[in-house]
Amino acid sequence: MKLFDSHCHLDDRSFVKDFDGVILQARQAGVEKIMVVGITQKSCRMAVKLADNNPGIYASVGIHPHDVKDCTEEVLDNLKMFAENGKVKAWGEIGLDFNRMFSPRALQEKWFVRQIELAHELGLPLIFHERDSRGRFSEMLKTHLKSEAKGVVHCFSGNKKELFDYLSMGLYIGITGIVTIESRGAELRNLVAGIPSDRLLIETDAPYLTPAPQKNKTRRNEPAFVKSVLMKIAEVRKEDPEALSLKIWENTHRLYRISDL
Q: What total number of domains does the chain contain?
């Protein structure tokens, strides 16, 4: 079984002291490849550095909606330079988050559109974040996302209509450890069965969203735990875990345009 954690934040300070051990545990769990996702200029720089120094690790660059209050064209120019590195395979994590409103809505929308444009310019797939946008996220994607563009809605936890919208736009769907949580993941488990097998990705969003059963032992999520996400999805879909893992492995490589399967 070969696994690809399609979205995590290994640049987080919680991994500084035992990074090598975390990678070793991931390898032992069958996690052969990892996408480290940037959310600020600083984290993007670190993500690229980690990708450069570790085989099987890739990076994305982008400014998270929480942090666009500090975004400028100069910042994006720097991210474009980071994206020249061959280990950078996507632009993101970008999108809208109207839950905590760490950045004003107007700025979120402005820089969301600008970053979509940059990804189009660079020919990079997109990693999307959406929370509590009440349809605005889908509306903006339909207006600004080119039909040939590729991307993934990371940590999907929306409703059936939103899922249909994303699939109709050709997007992939990233599933996290939420699917393993008994009460919180109930609706997600119902929807997972209806996701086409060629649009499905698995992710940890580490160090956040630790899946069951690991969440009963540790607060920090890590790439090794993506196997629990895969096993729960296979259970819900009534599919063979190894066959499903191979399909998701292929999906992730196709999205991120990584040729060495």
A: 1
* Domain boundaries, position 86: 3-255
Q: For the chain, give the mean pLDDT.
A: 97
Confirm whether 69 is domain-assigned.
yes
Are the CB atoms for 134 and 99 separated by under 8 Å? Answer: no
64 phi and psi angles, rounded to 5 deg? -65, 150
Give the pLDDT confidence score for residue 90 in this predicted structure.
98
Rounded Cα–Cα distance for residues 8 and 1 (Å): 20
Q: Is residue 146 part of a domain?
A: yes
Tokens (6 digits) for 185: 């993941």
Give pTM, 2 decimals: 0.97
Residue for token digits 């196997």? 227
**Residue 125 belongs to a domain with what CATH number?**
3.20.20.140
